[in-house]
Specification:
heterodimer, A: 131 residues, mainly alpha, 4 helices, 0% strand, B: mainly alpha, globular
Chain lengths: 131, 405
């Protein structure tokens, strides 16, 4: 028998292998059906072109796109790190607050306060608005 | 922490194969335990693969059932019959769908990035299937009980974002890229309220293991912390790309968003992944907020879990049938200006209540629940005032246009 701690993760690993095989197998069956002529395969230029209402496309796809999600991605990194800090605090809060009292809460409020200043700044700058 | 052998099903099959001390007082039939303890690892692998096989197939059958159920229910919601031709009550419609989607012509666009194009649908299905590994389906019926279960679920669902962006980018289509970029913005934004709402649960449970979260629920957390439940529900609806948050695939404006260029089984995998995500997400909500397998003892725990699970899925279908689609800016505003603060209020109020009552009895728990409901209504009222629709300005532009017409 494996170590009790790692056999849980061993099962996750086995599950990952199986879960990867499922979509691969489905794609494979669908692909094999093409060889026995069950699945049709009649490529043409227009069919394989970029889909835009069925007309022939005369431009390339590489053109400017407005990456409006960029600010959100930056903010996401900051606030996701905040949640990363919140998780261990939340797990041990019940135990620690009995021992150290209100100081455990005050420490987290101080941290949240610092983050909230940044949040208010981003709101005032208009970064939370989809433009 | 539970070990794998605390799971009744796992122990039953394992002890059929292996003769070891752990199986001393378990049920046995004649001839079982033919693998000696030296090769116990083989028995472990066979048992694990057997259970994984059952769970994966159960998930796939569940998807078929959900496709049928959703179409029937939405049909009823819209005062029509829904699919009813193929089999009794149209029960074979999803099977016909699956066969059709598998044997359709596969188109690979010339402008696409081939590797990313094929990898994206696979990446959509794998993480969703992985969620099923940590769900406890009943009392002492689970595959694994990770000590970081909640974190595992939150981490593995965020892979979804990557898959959507890869699909949008790889297919080399303008609709696809617009849908993919919208999806990234939305999924990233809603991940934060989702994680923060889960923090509220973990505060009370004092553990990240899903089974211990369920065991800690004397009052289901949906009743105990309505603010956390509401935010988690909204955030997971958005994470699922389901209506009313389906801007990423909005048929009327973006064809199908990131799925535009996909056909045949590759499209089928996206379809599969989305429906499976609904099932998995409902199970997670049941575990975290509705008390998992707990219930009055007139029914076995597995039935309670199933009932809650199916009801939760029906709630998602109900959402889809009821709410109109939100605009992109409204969705972003809801996530960043509304849900984010609501979850912080939820966390702080629980932390303060836990300071006042460190070891709550049942009566104290109900008092805490009452205070939480007051906080719920007050904060919703305040944020409704802040973010709700503004009255038209008397001399503003909008007013003038209305008058001219």
């Amino acid at each position: 028998m494996l170590n009790n701690y790692f056999d849980q993760y061993g099962i996750i690993g086995l599950f990952l292998i199986t879960a990867t095989l499922v979509p691969l197998g489905m794609l494979l069956v669908s692909k094999l059906a093409q060889y026995i002529k069950v699945r049709p395969h009649n490529p043409s230029e227009i069919k394989e072109g970029m889909y835009e209402c069925g007309m022939r496309v005369d431009s390339d796809r590489w053109q400017g796109y407005n990456l409006r999600y960029y600010y959100y991605a930056l903010l996401f990194v900051i606030f996701d790190i905040e949640t990363v800090f919140l998780f261990p605090w939340a797990v041990k809060y019940g135990v620690l607050s009995k021992e150290f009292g209100v100081s455990v809460l005050l420490a987290m409020i101080l941290f949240l306060f610092v983050v909230t200043i940044g949040y208010v700044y981003a709101w005032k700058k208009g970064d939370l608005q989809w433009k | 922490m539970n070990t794998v052998l605390d799971s009744v099903v796992f122990k039953f099959i394992y002890c059929m194969l292996v003769s070891s001390d752990e199986c001393a007082n378990s049920f046995k039939i004649i001839g079982s335990g033919f693998i000696s303890e030296k090769y116990a690892i083989i028995g472990f692998l066979i048992t694990a693969f057997f259970l994984i096989f059952i769970i994966v197939n159960g998930a796939l059958v569940g998807v078929l059932a959900l496709i049928w159920g959703e179409r029937r229910l939405v049909g009823r919601f819209q005062a029509r019959l829904g699919p009813n031709r193929w089999g009794p009550w149209g029960i074979f419609t999803p099977v016909a769908d699956a066969i059709k989607v598998m044997f359709k012509e596969d188109i690979s666009p010339t402008l696409s990035d081939k590797f990313v194009f094929i990898l994206a649908p696979i990446l959509m299905v794998v993480p969703v299937l992985m969620i099923f590994a940590v769900i406890p389906f009943g009392e002492a019926t689970f595959l694994t009980d990770l000590n970081v279960g909640v974190l595992f679920v939150l981490a593995i669902t965020s892979t979804n974002t990557l898959s959507v962006l890869m699909a949008g980018w790889g297919s080399g289509n303008r609709y696809g890229i617009i849908g993919g970029l919208r999806a990234v913005a939305m999924l990233l934004s809603y991940e934060i309220p989702m994680a923060l709402a889960a923090v509220g649960v973990i505060l009370m449970a004092g553990s990240l293991s899903i089974i211990q979260v369920i065991e800690s629920q004397v009052i289901p957390y949906a009743i105990f912390q309505p603010l956390g439940f509401l935010t988690f529900l909204i955030a997971s609806t958005a994470e699922l790309n389901r209506s009313p948050f389906d801007i990423t695939e909005a048929e009327s404006e973006l064809i199908a968003g990131y799925m535009t260029e996909y056909s045949s089984m590759k499209f089928g995998l996206f379809y599969l992944g989305e429906f499976m995500a609904t099932i998995a997400s409902s199970a997670i909500i049941v575990c975290l907020f509705l008390g998992g397998w707990k219930g009055p003892e007139i029914l076995p725990s597995h039935f309670w879990f199933m009932i809650k699970w199916i009801l939760m899925i029906c709630v998602f279908i109900w959402f889809r049938a009821t709410f109109p689609r939100l605009r992109v800016d409204q969705i972003m505003e809801l996530a960043w200006k509304g849900l984010f603060e609501l979850t912080l209020i939820n966390i702080l109020s629980i932390a303060i209540l836990m300071l006042i009552w460190p070891d709550p009895s049942i009566t104290e728990l109900w008092i805490m629940t009452g205070i939480k409901w007051i906080v719920f209504f007050v904060s919703l009222w305040i944020f409704g005032k802040l973010l709700g629709p503004k009255p038209l300005q008397k001399n503003g532009v909008a007013r003038k246009i209305v008058l001219q017409k």
